[in-house]
Amino acid sequence: MTTTTNPQRAAHHADQFGRAVAQRLAQSTDDLPYEVSERLRAARARALQVRKQAITAPAVLAQAGGAATLGSEGFSFWTRIGSVLPLLALAAGLVLLHGFQAERRASEIAEVDVALLTDDLPPAAYADPGFLQFLRQSGRE
């Protein structure tokens, strides 16, 4: 059998346990020296202050209009649209950039092909190893 715990009920049980422990400790503090009882009193005061801050923090967040909450109930339709738009803009930019790069690469290849076809030498001359030797010697002169 699966049991689910309600957060408010669990907090209530924790508070009850804390009160019972505090009451038990308060009964046995009569025999302690003054310094020890003062340190215990200061520790209780700090613990109560921390507990009050833990209780009031969710209330402050709820009063802030839910802007600081991370639950899905704080997201409206326009908030979701606003969070998706930058992703869509990024994807569109990447697609456009890819298209631009592909077109530029194709035009560079076309320029090389045009230069090879309109040159006085046949394209097979560029593959000949002796032609590279000829180009190196003519470049030195």
Strand content: under 5%
Name the overall outline: elongated
Helix content: over 70%
Number of helical elements: 5
Radius of gyration: 39 Å
Q: Profile the largest sheet.
A: none
Number of strands: 0
* Total separate domains: 2
Q: What is the CA–CA distance across the termini?
A: 95 Å
Roughly what is the average pLDDT, rounded to an integer? 79
- In terms of structural class, how would the helical and strand content be classed? mainly alpha
SSE topology string:
HHHHH
Low-confidence stretches: none
Brief synopsis:
The chain has about 140 residues and is mostly helical.
Please render the helix and strand layout as text.
Elements: H1 7-27, H2 34-63, H3 77-118, H4 123-127, H5 129-140
Describe this entry's structure for a reader.
- The chain is mainly alpha-helical and 141 residues long.
- It contains 5 helices and no strands.
- The longest helix has 42 residues, at 77-118.
- The chain starts with 6 loop residues before the first helix and ends with a helix.
- The protein has helices spanning 7-27, 34-63, 77-118, 123-127, 129-140.
- The radius of gyration is 39 Å and the shape is elongated.
- It has 2 domains: 1-65; 74-141.
Please describe the structure with a list of short key phrases separated by commas or semicolons:
mainly alpha; elongated; 2 domains; about 140 residues
